Amino acid sequence: MNNYGINIWSDDNFIIDSGLVKLNYKTNPALIDIVQKVRSDGNTGPLILRFPHITQKQIDKLYKTFNKTIEEYSYNSSFYAVFPLKVNQFPNHILPMLKGSESLNYGLEAGSKAELLLAMAYNNKNAPITVNGFKDKQMIMLGFIAKNQGHDITLTIEGLNELETIIDVYKELNLPCPNVGLRVRLHSSGSGTWAKSGGINSKFGLSSMEILQAFDILKKHNLTNVLKMIHFHIGSDMNSIHPLKKALKESGHIYVELKKMGADGLDSINIGGGLAIEYSQYNRNIQYSLKEFANDVVFTLKDISEKNGVKSPNIFTESGRFISAPGSVLIAPTLELFSSEYNKSNIRLKKTNPPIIEELYYLFEHITKENAKEYMHDSLEHLESILTLFDLGYVDLIDRSNAEVLTNLIIKKSIKLKDIHNDKELKRLDNKIQEKYLLNFSIFQSLPDFWGINQEFPIMPLTHLDKKATRSANIWDITCDSDGEIPFESSKPLYLHDVDLTKEEYFLGFFLVGAYQDTLGMKHNLFSSPSQVNIVFENDEMKIKDFIKSQSILDIFDDLDYDSNEILNNLIISTENDSLKEVLQEYIKDNSYLKTTHTEGKFNI
Ligand SMILES: Cc1ncc(COP(=O)(O)O)c(C=O)c1O
Question: Looking at ligand 1, which atom is closest to the CA of residue 515?
């Protein structure tokens, strides 16, 4: 049976048991049962399930691994971590995460004014806040306000002008200055999709010359003591450890050089993010473990510091993908299987049919296990011929429809008769015999990284896992856009089940979606974020909490700066019938996802 690579990507967070995907925690609930509970209140459409205990597990793993390594190497400084808000700003993710990590002093990283205000409002007491990205005077003022509120805040400068503004504001306010960090532009670049975040041509950070100038400016204003941190980030989702090793050597030497020049307050190196997640359901891509990552960081920084006679720096990380990706699962209901339109009752044989149609009908009637492959080949060839004849005007629409229906019926029958997973020849035909699964979700809204950078996410059905999945699957979303599709790829084949949606439901889970997808998602076609819930356990009892309903159509209009009252009035005024007015009002207060009855396959309109 296909296990959809659950042993590769799930890190034991999910298991397959009795044909169902289950949470591998406490009472081991099946995801389908959670989904059915949420839907029983009328919440159809896509859904995001968040599991705060998985996020907590990642945070604990990060701290434990680094603290153990620090102990093993007798490293004489400490480990700190912050969560970069850009990775997932949703309250359902942030608030339980901060609560669960209070005792660890887990902090937040902000990359904009909005994120900084969030960090100031919610950061764990005594935990650090780091601020990256380009800053104007307002953002720097916010840094001073945060410091004044008692936050342990570091403003990492991306350019000398930011440092000059910090000094201006310091003089203007005459208040204690936040810590200053220098983001250094390393020679080393990262690996993987985001390698360009590092390297000499990267968008961010100070060159060697600018680092020297920054230190001169601080000296001139008697502020060398506020310089606390060297920062670098060589790119997200680093699949190899080598670029990190190089970056550590480079930044470690910058650290000791500055210390030797008199940067007495400097006591930390912030290594940014980069820790990868295994997204593949086919093979392992990540070439290092968290322990190897921690060993390299601690060993390299200790080695450089000791050789140069300076105290080792505190180590900060800003890994977000590693923390938040595993804890969220997107669930999308299947609305339709396209070949389900192709059933026998739709064959419209005429008194006289073109010989190819007669032949197709014969193949359909006489297909057996022994001849299935041959008949399927023949039928695909016959379909091609009929399509060509149609274009030339030699056959009519009824003939064309008959050819499509019969070929699909022959393919379905052959797949049933043969064992697709053990049949190389059938596999070669996967591309030609795909089934299209229409799902009630938007790829642009919920999996923007699939659309934008072809990011792979593990996909599997929540049920039917004790049955053979025989259909090579092409996933379509409900947007009016041909990019809203996850096509079948023979190098990473996704097989799904042949289900009759009039009799049973079929939900697909998209895993590891907790990093970047939620806020990068866009309202293309005006689809809003899916409804979402947190699944928590209290005294070993599962609770569904923090339900956030998908935004209504009216709210989306508001977001676009339409006057939603005007829209509502325009619609109501031009409708005379009172019950139609009511219908309009009801629909506009709902979201754009398709409404269905208890089985998603049946539209109720
Ligand atoms: C400065 C900084 N820190 C941390 C991160 C998060 O990195 P990751 O996605 O590897 O967790 C990013 C992401 O781009 C970043 O720019």
Answer: 9
- Measured in whole angstroms, the distance separating CA 120 from the mean position of its chain's CA atoms is 26
- 482-523: pLDDT as tens digits: 899 999 998 899 999 999 999 999 999 999 999 999 989 999
| Cα radius of gyration (the chain) | 29
**Residue 224: its pLDDT value, please?**
97
Q: At 286, which helix (H) or strand (E)?
A: none
Best residue among 55, 82, 86, 290 to mutate for probing ligand 1's pocket (most ligand atoms within 8 Å of CB) is 86
Dump pLDDT digits (tens) for 244-272. 999 999 999 999 999 999 999 999 999 99
Three-class SS state of 431: coil
Pairing mode, strands 485-486 and 459-461: unpaired
Residue of 564, 543, 516 whose CA lies nearest to 237: 516
Nearest CA to ligand 1 atom 12: 273
Q: What angle do CA 30, 31, 32 make, to 5 degrees?
A: 90
CA distances in angstroms from 525 to 78, 112, 481, 484, 528, listed in the order given = 49, 27, 9, 11, 9
Measured from CB, residues less than 6 Å from any atom of ligand 1 are 84, 87, 109, 132, 197, 233, 236-237, 272-275, 318-322
